[in-house]
Amino acid sequence: MKTRIALLSLTFLSAALSYGAVFSFVHPGAHATFLGLAVLAAVRHFVHPYLVSRHLLNALAVAVMILSLSRIRPDLLIEPLVDGVLVLLGIKLLEARLGRDYLQIYLLCLFLLLGLGLLSLSISFLFYLAPLAFLLTLSLLLLTVEAADPNGQLPRRAFSQLAFLAGAMGGLTVPVALILFVILPRTNFPLLNLLTAFGKAGAGRTGFSETVRLGEVTAIQEDAAVVFRVQTAPLREKDLYWRGLVLDRFDGAAWSPSRRVVFDPFESVQPGDVHQIVFMEPFGMDVLFGLDRPVSIHPIPVRGTKDGTFRVFSPLFKKTRYEVWSRPPTPFLEEGPPDPDLLHLPPTLSPRLSELARPWTRIASPGERLRAILEFLQPPRFHYALENLPSDLEDFLFQNRKGNCEYFASALAVLARLSGIPARLVGGYRGGYYNQAGGYYLVLQKHAHVWTEVYVEGTGWMRLDPTPPAAVTPAELYARSLLARWRVLMDTLNYYWFRIVVDYDVETQLALIRRAQALASSLSQKPKGPSKEALRTAVLIVMGVAVFMGLCLAVRRRAARDPTRELRSAYARRLKRYGYDLKDWEGVEESAQAIHDAAVRERALHFARAFHEAVYRNQNLSPETRRALQDHLRRL
Amino acid sequence: MIRITRAGWIYVVLTVAVGFAAVNTANNLIYVITSVLLGFMLISGIAGKFNLEAVQVQLALPDEIYAESPAPMVVRVRNRRRFLPVFLISVHVGPNAAFFTYLDRKSEATQTIPIHFARRGLSPPMPVWVASLFPFGFFVRTRLVDPLPSVLVFPKLTPSPYPAAPLDRTSKGEDRSLERHTGEDHDLRSIREYQAGDPLKKIHWKSSARTGRWLTKEFSMPARDTVVVDLDQMRGQDVEKALSCAAFVINAAARRGAAVGLLVGNRRYEPQASLAHKRKLLTVLALYGED
């Protein structure tokens, strides 16, 4: 079979596979063009060769690329590119002649698969990747053969052997790549900060600090770095508040937590509490985050306060894993009445604010009071904005009525306090991208958020988020970009890397060693054999394998058996008894004549002549002749 | 030894660039790509190495080799592997190469390639190596095998008049006198290895095709002449030319079945009509002035 035909067939198969992968995302026009080109290509390569102008094809390719680039819109990014790549693939199939044409086809196939990954946003494209990788490896092998021996031929069995090699090489590459992946040198400090989008993952990261100044969260939100990943079942969108630190002291410009050195005991976990495993990135913070409102954290030592803040004893500078139990329903109760400080406001606060709050203080019910304040803070009076933020709270409330979450939350807290309701700010994260493949939430600095908590007599603490819900937050903006979509998909690998490699620390290692030791000692102490059942199964399996291998060998043997050869080697064994060696190149008769003992020589010649007669003259070794020859041998 | 091809350089540069990006960004996706690229390179290197190591090479040269005329060398390649075939093997002997696309497991293949020797006398040993692009054409891996030992190269054959009767040659340089020997001469006496200058029509095509070597028919010849070549008498010209002419005459005489002798200076070789004798005389000519 011609190598070229096999190579072309494989190339068409790869193209078909990649086409199938993106089939449901392709524009009808691209479908038609690709199929038309593919049919033309198939006719050209397999049925009736004809000439195609390369210039024409190149011009067509450029036109296709311009067309698909011009179709790109912010909300339609990948589809036009996939269409373009698909048509290019058709053109290249038609053109395929030189080695580089084939390489380009393989690259286009990979691009299509990448497009599938971006379009479907699932890891399922890896299942397309495996067969495509196999096909491409095999094609590369054939391409090398074809390039070295143009228009050559290979026997049919060579192709199956090549396929086996391609499979073996692909299969072996996976474990080798795994080992390399684990041992490749890693550093947290980029050598060159070329890619700022990813580069911020390293040093110089900032998270929430102890004080939150107005406008400061915006700075955090500019960072696309991952803060933590939370392994948990999917949650309701409205519950996605990741609680961090409680800010209850306001000095007119900034909020900060009051330093109470209190070690409140953990609440006990109740049924219905949401369990999460958090993988925290190092940001130099001592606050641990969890779904609002966390009640218990394991297994790292923490001190928790009754307001639902959990802190470790020293800032975290390495990746950390911990488990959290949270109780999402709100309102919730805290032990004891709220601190009177929660009504405190700085004396420097502008009197205009008290003026503003005065009408609300006349409302008797605290619930009604809060509703009125919330209503006041809603659009169209107030707008969500990320730029040109007001200079302070007064500016926000009276002139420049646009701002981000801190302005809204601060305004609500201050107005609540002015109207006699204890209030505080909570700093944390809102939302997160759920990764279906990994089963976890990915939370970025972009999700940084501040909301308000108020205490209503008889009800408890209520979470109030005055930030307009329809606001386009930085996290949502980011989610629309291509980079982010790709990143969320690919973060699965980071997640598993974290779980498998980073989570594998000294303690786990020691635990493993201890377990191995325990196993060894238990084995040496109690030489209790495996159960009868297991033993029987094992013996059966071993016997089965042995019988199977024996059968295989016998079949091979049988196929390889050649009666002439067997007779010859039997003769050689006989000769050996008399001290003669039958050399490979020596004839049977020749060797017989070289025997010194006349009687033996006579008998050997007897056999030799009969052997020659049967093998060389008659060229037919019937069973009778064979028996006769064996008789001769026995007499020898 | 490994030489990197152009495609290989592209691959290496790509891998290094992606590796740098991985370290720089600490992004695991890029680490995965780097490790796959590296792993693929490693595995393909190992596959290429095993492919090359499985090959055994045997070289066979014809009994008579003349300077400046191509000698057919038989390259025999054997795949030692029990389960896997061998692909894309080229065997290089000096500047010449034989190429084998595919060798099934436990099998062998032969190819005949012309090999040139420029000078008469003992040729220096020629390095022999096997090379392969397998599996992806990124690297050319080579392995030195036993060199071709030094061989004796007889002088170039320069046609010169045969002493007994003027030599009549066809347009192809074949000895026409052979065509005229009719009668019982057509009796096939034996088949021997092809020697330079044998007429094409005397090649035994069937046996050549069967064995993969060029074989020439030899016919019986009733009458015998005697020819003695006196090198000094041919010395009107330069030594090399004289040696070439002498070699031609000895060869021609032997082909006619004539007994041939040689006079070199004061050494005398009695005329005889055997192949061994012919080769002895040619050896004397080949080594003339060399020791």
From TrEMBL, chain B:
Listed transmembrane segments: 7-23, 29-48, 83-102
InterPro entries for this protein: DUF58
> Which residues belong to any copy of the DUF58 domain?
191-281
Stretches for region Disordered? 164-184
Composition-biased stretches (Basic and acidic residues): 169-184
Presence of the UniProt keyword Lyase in the record: no
Taxonomy, superkingdom? Bacteria
- Please provide the record's keywords in A-Z order: Membrane, Transmembrane, Transmembrane helix
Record's protein name: DUF58 domain-containing protein
